[in-house]
Amino acid sequence: xxxxxxxxxxxxxxxxxxxxxxxxxxxxxxxxxxxxxxxxxxxxxxxxxxxxxxxxxxxxxxxxxxxxxxxxxxxxxxxxxxxxxxxxxxxxxxxxxxxxxxxxxxxxxxxxxxxxxxxxxxxxxxxxxxxxxxxxxxxxxxxxxxxxxxxxxxxxxxxxxxxxxxxxxxxxxxxxxxxxxxxxxxxxxxxxxxxxxxxxxxxxxxxxxxxxxxxxxxxxxxxxxxxxxxxxxxxxxxxxxxxxxxxxxxxxxxxxxxxxxxxxxxxxxxxxxxxxxxxxxxxxxxxxxxxxxxxxxxxxxxxxxxxxxxxxxxxxxxxxxxxxxxxxxxxxxxxxxxxxxxxxxxxxxxxxxxxxxxxxxx
Length: 362
What we know:
It is a single chain. With 362 residues, this protein is of the alpha+beta class. The chain has three domains: 110 residues; 157 residues, 2-Layer Sandwich (Alpha-Beta Plaits), CATH 3.30.70; 70 residues, Double Stranded RNA Binding Domain (2-Layer Sandwich), CATH 3.30.160.20. The protein has ten helices and eleven strands.
């Protein structure tokens, strides 16, 4: 057995031990009667259950392999039984290897699968009105994909242009596995096409940036109210008389990080405040998570998952009906389908590449 496999089994031993510890604690009367302690433990148990079940199945297979090897090593064993034992070892070893690979894959992707709510921010970059129209098209692409996956989409804030483009749009998507699939979308997106505003038929290059932030539960991150300064003002822009007369716009400023969030989409100050806190919580969570990732991965190069907003990750070439993801050098010639929300092939390729890199660095 390789050093990497031994390391994996040691990690799986730790996970099983933690699972057994949780089982024991949940059965204790003082915890069973205290929802504040019971719920987090139950959630953790639920996350570990599948991997522990696979590991226990693997250990049974390993025990059966050992029994078959003992039969082989016994000099008194008849030849026909030895032949059966050799055949069984071959079959069980294949099963064990497959199960071990499956567990390793599950283990390296587990944290991503646990996050079922994200906040997506799309902003128009260079290219003026055409960039705003491209930002709108990206928004439509993600919404259609989310609908195909039966995920819930909620608009949080948007700023539109005269030609119905988006200078900025912020929205949340909730559903199983949403971060594990859309977490790769963060970065710079570039489009090459003839803009609607172009009368000479010339191809222009415009850009938009996408940020994808995991939306943590309140228990995942604690923000001291003393660290946040709130500013209340009147909203600006369209929305009726109430918008300009009532102080409903909210701006939150997190002093330790300098992160600010402004929200004026709703007429209600209360709703704007709630949305602003959701976005602030996600940005602060991502801020600290990205810092931890940078420290952890400082000695490792990774093409996927950096979420660097300045990094050009993908080009959408309309004249050639081509989409190119620069991180994995993948080009697909079905741009029309992709912009209609059919981005599953792209996501699968990115996930496979990311999984392979994580396994190599396990």
